[in-house]
Amino acid sequence: MRTALTLMRTATRELNRNRKRTLLTVLGIVVGTLTLVMVLSLGDGLEKLALSQLGGLTPNNVYVEVKVPENVRAASELNALSIKTMDEADRQDIIGVPNISDASGWYSWSGKITLGGTSKTITVLGGHEGWPTVNAVPVEHGAWFSKADVTGAKRSLVLGQNLAQDLADESRVEKSALVGKNLKLGGKSFQVAAVAGEVDATRFFDYNDMAYVPMTTGQNQLWGDDHYLAIAAYMTDPSQVDVTTWRIANRLRQNRGHTEPEKDDFAVRTFDEAMGIVGTVTSGIQILLGAIAGISLLVGGVGIMNVMYTTVVERTKEIGLRKAIGARPSAIALQFVAEAVLVTFLGGLLGAVAGVALSWLAALGARVAGFDWVWSMPWMAIAVGIGSSVFIGLVFGIAPAKKAAQLDAIISLRQ
Asked: Given this model, what pLDDT does residue 16 score?
């Protein structure tokens, strides 16, 4: 312990002799460390942001959506919107799969809604009576349209939270007062059955700005098409997701008369798959930015090596004198390694502090820009940043230290 303290005191004294050079050397390590700390912090925040954009997707959800089959994708100009094979028979078959408690069709349509003198173009979603359970949509006022409403293609309407608030503000009434009112949708009269509660928005869909109608009503009176773009199902036991999705895929293949996955015009999506995609994307970004941070640290390490070689040349006579009075080569080498490590430790410490501050400012800027960004600073990021800096100092300080230890005492004194 005493030897280590002596080495640190001596290293501090030597670095103080040329403060400007020491500061410039430390600066290279600071830049690399703060970059590394920011990458790990912002990468963690990015992953949390991406997961928050999954909206109401939970481990119990399974989504079956249309897609262009792989065996025709390369030679065809088809797109997912032109696939019209998913229908009510598929929904009923999915409901019949063990572990599936309910399922709702999904279709998106754009139309104009009018209440009094207020008129605006909105997105309308067609679904079934199980939509609130399947997609975790709460009801704030009124009641969701029933199975009888779907069967009878009733002109019933559920307003999203933000849409209901806009209409209520324009009509100067409370949102609850909208329930039971008649309004125009696509030029036809619809009755408001309910106002939906707040739903987590995604970057692609904000269900709070949309309206919901019975699927059959939309098919017969709005968009005039009886196929689905997707089917959302709810699993009772999410631990059986693999066997459940396998059964769904097999059932749909039977409906289409084939057994080859490459012929599938549907894709079964799950929460685990979405999590995997998010993890892959964020990990890729972190690796890329981490490589940039690593290059910055390597550049700083080369700078330290250069400075230490210069220091050895400047202190050649001192090294010779120490050897002449009995200093061992290992002690001289340790002294120079200690100086390199001290420089990189200081640079790593300052870089970690700067990285924490800049990542917090970046998260603040993201929130100001409208992103639901949660600032996160894992302690591992700070530990990795400082540890990497010290490691760089150790690695790039060995060669100059070895050169100092190998100098001949007599020749060094002559210089």
From this structure: 63
> How many whole angstroms from its chain centre is CA 346?
32
Query: In whole angstroms, what is the distance from residue 336 CA to residue 341 CA?
Result: 9
Number of domains making up the chain? 2
Which strand (E) or helix (H) includes residue 150? helix 147-151
One domain, residues 113 and 250: yes
> Cα dist. 118→166, 168, 184, 391 in Å?
9, 10, 10, 66
Q: Which residues contact 17 (CB under 8 A, 6 or more apart)?
A: none
Q: Give the count of beta carbons closer than 10 Å to the beta carbon of residue 188.
A: 12
Helix axes 379-405, 329-368, angle to 10 degrees: 150
Of 243, 264, 285, the one marking the end of a domain is 264
Q: Please identify, among 230, 264, 298, the residue that sits at the C-terminal boundary of a domain.
A: 264
Nearest to 59 by CA among 301, 283, 269, 338: 269
Query: pLDDT grade, residue 69 (50/70/90)?
Result: confident
Q: 54-63: per-residue pLDDT in tens?
A: 555 677 888 8
Whether 168 and 161 have beta carbons less than 8 Å apart is answered as no
Q: Give the Cα separation of 51 and 81 in Å (integer).
A: 26
What's the CA gap between 385 and 302, in Å, rounded? 18
* Number of residues in the chain: 415
**Does residue 63 sit within a domain?**
no
Collapsed DSSP state (helix, strand, coil) of residue 211 = strand
Confirm whether 59 is domain-assigned: no
Query: Is residue 15 situated within a structural domain?
Result: yes
d(CA 199, CA 349) in angstroms, rounded, equals 43
189 is in which domain, residue-wise?
68-264
pLDDT digits (tens, 9 = 90+) for 321-339: 777 777 777 777 777 788 7
Residue at 270 is within a domain: no
pLDDT of 158: 95
**Could you count the other beta carbons within 10 Å of the beta carbon of residue 396?**
22
Do residues 242 and 104 both lie within one domain?
yes
Distance CA 151, CA 219 (A): 12
| Token digits of residue 205 | 């869909």
User: Residue 63: beta bridge partners?
Assistant: 232, 269
DSSP 3-state assignment of 265? coil
